[in-house]
UniProtKB/TrEMBL annotation:
Species of origin: Papiliotrema laurentii (Cryptococcus laurentii)
Taxonomic path: Eukaryota, Fungi, Dikarya, Basidiomycota, Agaricomycotina
Domain of life: Eukaryota
Single biological process term from Gene Ontology: mitochondrial protein processing
GO MF term list: metal ion binding; metalloendopeptidase activity
Any matching Pfam family: Peptidase_M48
InterPro entries, A to Z: Mito/Outer_Membr_Metalloprot, Peptidase_M48
Cofactor(s) the record lists: Zn(2+)
Residue span, Peptidase M48 domain: 450-683
Tagged with keyword Phosphoprotein: no
Keyword annotations from UniProtKB, A to Z: Hydrolase, Metal-binding, Metalloprotease, Protease, Zinc
One of the record's GO cellular component terms: mitochondrial inner membrane
Name of the protein described by the UniProt record: Peptidase M48 domain-containing protein
Length: 697
């Protein structure tokens, strides 16, 4: 029935091709509506209506207020009725697709860049750069050779002496002409041509090819005539193998040229010249075309040298630009050349108990083992852990947009332009920017970092340090008992002694042989604030991913830079040392490679940069305020003990080598003084107060 109605409509359209009758229009509309009455007639329409979140063109059709079932039906390209409805003015005029796809694709750029900022891409780029740099010495020698050839050919001794008539003709008609290189077929035919004076060869078509002159060698004076065609080549040609013949053909193609045709207006004047003047004109044309060939080759060589020199730096710089990102809270630009997946691999390798093993392995040396771990039953564990968990709760509340769990402070903490947020994976970035995605799509399982692991070690040194990156305990803080003892010695007069053991009865004391455990000291608020300052500073390093930045720079960035620098240095000095033979050059290469590997191996785990210390101080101050501690009172503790903390490194204190002394000097020069760090904290507090006053107005 539906097919018959379609056929009827088609016949009606054929009859009414030349007229537009209202009756025809009503019949067509009735037929189309009747065809639409069945639920299975428009399966694509049901599909569109079942998925109202469709994007692009389909969404425009479905959401168009003027769209009706028959217009959707008529706009379907598979229906033959569509063209006839268009003639009647009934076909739906589909709006042109609004070109928003280009703007929607812009957020995909940073998500795609996340794939490029990886160690594998940097390794490939570095390898390619080293290959390009290896051609630099050969290109340098070739450029010097071409420069010398241009200088030789531009001299007055090589310029032909001609009459004024020949000079005038050349300037008028031939000054800007360029030679024509022979093709492979023409070069093959020239091998059987007739040799002429001045090294020319007459081809089968009558055209004459001329050689490009070569500068005489300082070591071989006969080289100047090496370009002249050897007549015996024709006789030796049958005895040549295919490889020798092809090499000779390519040589002819590369070193010879034809004169271009003269302009039609110049031909009568050229024919009117005397044979001697014609020969002078030809000599001028040969000279200036050869000089232009030399200059063009020199220009190409210089561009090639610039490419060999700049392209490696552009490629490596492009990878570095892909690794740029903003540091949370401070907004400083930094480079991390690790993809989110590589960061996730590092975090997974340190998660759980692996973090404790890594710390013990890091502190274990050949001379002595790692310091012993304080038993978990020690009361100092509960004290340090309670302070750490309080700081972590404040950070999580800030990241989740909840109010501080421990109340406000005397100075309100202003919102940050660059808030703390988890480091996303590439998949989450793509999910968040693809059509239909949400801002938080794919970020459900990402973690900001806390809760962190904690380890208290028995050592008299007044120090604490952070280590690791990521959630699930992949990052944590190590505290030495020497630091805790120094904190507990502050204000001993105010320290109360409070027993923490359960009360025992008379019979227990009577039959018990062991002495009662000593009471545990209860830290004061000032001592707890001092400890909170230390832990907040180390949490700042973890939250800002300073360890990841150090790993990226010292284990990925600097080795690549050192390797490229050594290769470039060798490339520059190779033209001066290649006369010494491969032994000396290989020795220089091994020395450079060993120096780069030693710097990367021994001094890769260097102490944190002074910017890291400033950022950790400011982040720690913010954490303290969010956790309900007095930020003004914490300034003194920052200047007393937090500024004296130092990170672990692989350089021995007794290393008196040149590199060891340079490293120590660099550390002393870049590590900020306690006074500088205290002033930075006071400046930050003043800024908070000013912003609080502005918001209160």
């Amino acid at each position: 029935m539906i097919r018959s109605s379609h056929q009827g409509v088609a016949r009606l359209l054929v009859r009414s091709r030349s007229r537009n009758h209202p009756l025809v229009t009503s019949v067509i509309l009735a037929e189309v509506r009747h065809a639409h009455a069945g639920p299975s007639r428009l399966p694509y329409l049901a599909y569109h209506r079942a998925y109202p979140s469709r994007k692009g063109k389909e969404k425009e059709i479905i959401n168009d207020s003027h769209s009706t079932p028959y217009t959707l039906y008529a706009s379907h390209s598979s229906l033959p009725i569509r063209g006839r409805l268009g003639e009647l003015g009934l076909a739906h005029q589909r709006r042109s697709f609004h070109a928003t796809a280009r703007r929607q694709a812009i957020p995909l750029i940073p998500a795609t860049i996340g794939i490029l900022k990886s160690t594998s891409v940097l390794t490939a780029v570095t390898a390619l750069s080293r290959v390009l740099i290896s051609f630099f010495p050969i290109g340098t020698l070739a450029t010097f050779k071409l420069t010398r050839g241009v200088r030789w050919l531009s001299s007055e001794d090589q310029k032909p002496t001609v009459s004024a008539e020949a000079e005038e003709f050349w300037r008028m008609w031939c000054e800007d002409e360029k030679g024509i290189r022979p093709t492979l077929k023409e070069a093959r035919e020239l091998l059987e041509g007739t040799p002429l004076p001045h090294g020319g060869i007459a081809g089968p078509d009558g055209r004459i090819s001329y050689p490009t002159p070569r500068a005489p060698s300082r070591f071989n004076k006969a080289r100047q005539d090496a370009h002249v065609f050897d007549p015996t080549i024709v006789e030796r040609k049958p005895d040549m193998c295919k490889g020798e013949l092809n090499k000779l053909i390519r040589h002819v193609k590369k070193t010879r040229f034809f004169f271009p045709d003269l302009p039609p207006a110049a031909v009568p004047y050229y024919q009117a010249l005397s044979p001697h003047v014609k020969e002078e004109v030809d000599s001028l044309r040969r000279y200036w075309i050869s000089l232009r060939v030399f200059k063009d080759n020199l220009k190409v060589a210089r561009w090639a040298m610039a490419t060999l020199l700049l392209l490696p730096f552009l490629l490596v710089s492009g990878v570095y630009v892909c690794g740029l990102e903003r540091v949370p809270l401070t907004g400083r630009w930094r480079i991390i050349l690790l993809t989110p997946e590589e960061e996730d691999t590092i975090s997974t390798s340190l998660a759980g108990a692996n973090w404790y093993r890594s710390v013990i392995n890091l502190l274990t040396t050949e001379e002595k083992p790692a310091p012993p771990i304080v038993p978990i039953e020690d009361w100092r564990w509960r004290w340090v852990q309670s302070v750490l968990r309080r700081l972590e709760a404040a950070v999580l509340a800030e990241c989740q947009g909840r109010p501080p769990p421990y109340g406000g402070t005397t100075i309100p903490v202003p919102p940050s332009t660059y808030p703390l947020k988890p480091r996303p994976r590439v998949s989450s970035r793509l999910h968040s920017v693809l059509p239909g995605g949400e801002a938080n799509s794919g970020k459900e399982h990402l973690e900001i970092g806390p809760p962190y692991s904690l380890m208290i070690m028995e050592k008299d040194e007044r120090n604490a340090f952070s280590y690791g990156f990521g959630g699930q305990g992949a990052g944590g803080i190590v505290v030495y008992t020497g630091l805790l003892d120094s904190i507990l010695r502050e204000g001993t007069d105010a320290t109360r002694i409070e027993p923490t053991s359960k009360p025992v009865g008379f019979l227990d004391r009577l039959f018990s042989s062991a002495p009662p455990p000593p009471p545990n000291p209860v830290p004061t608020e000032s001592q707890t604030l001092h400890l909170a300052c230390v832990l907040a500073h180390e949490m700042g390093h973890l939250l800002l991913s300073h360890h990841l930045e150090t790993l990226s720079q010292q284990q990925v960035l600097w080795p690549s830079i050192l390797g490229l620098t050594m290769d470039l240095t060798r490339a520059f000095i190779w033209p001066l040392t290649f006369f010494l033979g491969p032994t000396v050059n290989d020795a220089l290469a091994n020395v450079g490679r060993t120096s780069a590997d030693e710097l990367s191996e021994r001094y890769g785990q260097i102490g944190f940069h002074w910017k890291h210390e400033y950022e950790a101080d400011l982040a720690g101050l913010r954490i303290l305020s969010l956790a309900g501690y007095d930020s003004k009172a914490a300034v003194d503790h920052f200047s007393e003990s937090v500024a004296d903390l130092h990170e672990i490194n692989n350089v021995e204190d007794g290393d008196e080598s040149l590199t060891g002394r340079m490293f120590k000097l660099w550390t002393w020069a870049t590590h900020p003084t306690p006074h500088q760090r205290t002033e930075a904290i006071r400046t930050e507090l003043d800024r908070w107060m000013e912003e609080a006053e502005e918001r209160g107005r």
